[in-house]
Amino acid sequence: QVQLVESGGSAVQTGGSLSLPCAASGFTFSTYAMSWFLQAPGKERELVATITSASSTTNYADFVKGRFTISRDNAKNTLYLQMNSLKPEDTAVYFCKARRTATFSTYWGQGTQVTVSS
Asked: What number of other Cβ atoms are within 10 A of residue 6's Cβ?
């Protein structure tokens, strides 16, 4: 059974930091590209960052560049998002996503809430 479980969401003040892990199971994690998305209240889900299966390439949305870092540990089947210099506009539910283009396989986690207060 495929599972992606995000955790680490919390309420923090502006300028604070959080680290979000996403634990994967039930599929071959190391063969999947991974991404973080966020969804703010009343808005559509949007891409935050992506990382290739071997961590060779990362990409970031402009609004998080220089503040967030995506990484993965294939030995631990875990994806991470390090979030620094948090702003109130970063308040959202954060989701991890697994994607393998060769098999058209896509999996989503259930999300974790991040709230940044001013």
From this structure: 22
